[in-house]
Amino acid sequence: MIKNKQRLMILAFTIMMMNGVVNNLRAQVGPYIIEDYALNYSKLGILLSFISIGSMLFYFLSGKLIEKFGLIKLLFYGIIYNIISLAAIYLSPNYYFLTFSFFLLGSGLTLLNIVSVNLISISYSKNRGKMINLLHLFYGLGGIIAPYFVTLVLKLGFSWAHSFLFSTILLVIIFVEFKTAAVPEIEASKNKTMRSTKELLKDIKVILFSLIVFLQIGVEFSIITWLAPFLKDVEERSDLEISFYIALFFITFTIGRLLASFMVEKIGYFNFIIFTAGAASLSIAAALIGGRSFTILIPLSGIFLAAQVPTAQAAILDSFESSGIKVVGFAQTAGMIGSTVLASWIIGFVNDFISIRAGFFILVIALAADLLITSYDLTTKRQCFKN
């Protein structure tokens, strides 16, 4: 018989896989939304940015939501909320209603993301780091499935919007798993040793770490969002080829996290961020300069990008001790802003007014900035140790 602890693990992994599938449908459907709603790249960028805006808002409110409703109600409400948001996308009659529906989707996915992380954190407190990394691998698995799922839906004669509607099947599975598991509640933390928010926000290290994660998540979401339009409009590739390239990005992303778990402690957090940022930047630059034959280097860069955010979070926890979790929250919020401002607005604007290729060169610059800021952080840390 499956123990409740294992049921909770399966529930959390299913939630995260659903998150990976639904959150990455946009990578494939972008060109079809442009056609159906007669949009330019800027408007598509603004539209998709509302997923991140909804997510950002609920990250801010997550502590209050758990405190007010508890984990059980939050999971139940989250399932219903996501079903409504997916149905709203399918039924959207115009651009503005679709924009609002994507806002609902971003906030709904964040609700369930919060639940899944807490389920693993509570159930596996003794090996929390290992299990949360494993949890995020299931997000990567969902990302691998997403483009093929969209391609299958289109080949069966349905529209891109049906891929969102059919995703409600995953929520039904989550509901069934929820009913068979005893979900624990969470008590409010009584930890009083954290530094105040005002004090932390004045710390230059907090600002630099937040900027690093802003760039890291911005680059990651830029590739997810704009790889399909680049392959379709610039290189005129088929839907099957586009599916392959997007899936390859998530495959390498998943492999990258597995490899990082064996290497990061030996190389060191800061050095590992510097190495992977440099390698990813060179890979994307080579793909853009080398042309069509080298394009595969863009999805292959996922093996380096995968380790960026988890390693930055580990560096934050190591640097700020008891206040680390709070700083991780600031950095994650900055990352969500990056997924909106950099991935949707800035890149969308550059794509419209210069070219999509130029938009990808912005990612090379962003990764170079990530490398330089991390190098500065490392130098500062070494000087502190010397003093």
From TrEMBL:
Membrane topology: Multi-pass membrane protein
Entry's Gene Ontology cellular component terms: plasma membrane
Compartments (UniProt record): Cell membrane
Keywords: Membrane, Transmembrane, Transmembrane helix, Transport
Name of this chain's protein: Fucose permease
Species annotation: Halanaerobium congolense
PROSITE patterns for the chain: MFS
GO molecular function: transmembrane transporter activity
Transmembrane spans: 43-62, 74-91, 97-122, 134-154, 160-183, 204-230, 242-260, 267-290, 296-317, 329-348, 354-373
Keyword Transmembrane helix found: yes
